[in-house]
Amino acid sequence: MPPIGLESINPANLVGAKKRQNKITEYREMLLAWKKAGVVTYAGHILGFPHDTPESIIEDIEIIKEELALDVLSIYLLTPLPGSEDHKILWQQGAAMDSDMNNYDVEHVVTSHAKMSTQQWLAVYRRAWETFYDRAHLERIMRRTVAVGANLASVLGILMIYSRFFSRSKALAPSRAASSD
User: Fold this and answer.
1) Where are the beta strands (DSSP E) in 48-114?
2) Which pTM does this prediction carry?
3) CATH code assigned at 139
4) Residues 56-91: pLDDT tens digits?
């Protein structure tokens, strides 16, 4: 199943990203229905929208943990992919962006952020993974899986993959263009 494009739960970020259709209350109902049907639920969440701060990001992750019946959350760094409107706007503004296209992988900081230094952005990225995949929440995911009669082995397999990714993501370094702030 492809991930749901949760992107952000911050209303100001969603308006700025032209994602007015993303409403946490609707996601909650939809995800609960899928969980009751035994579906493994999976969403993508982006860090680094203009209204994000280290504190607001962790608050959002905690809300996601408490309010949404998600089994898996992929966490990405906002990346102005070449060819996108975001990339075009930043280029027109003369913003510093990494010249190495290999770093445009949603795991590296490739431009600056108005409210976070590159080091803060990377630190909150790691902390967001730690927060969502903490032991208590993993146990909650497994209990919920068993309670709805879904396949625990499938969920455990996916959680193993994500915990391995998280371990690898701790080693990520800022790209050259972004490390100057």
Assistant:
1) 72-77
2) 0.82
3) 3.30.750.200
4) 999 999 999 998 889 999 999 999 999 988 889 889
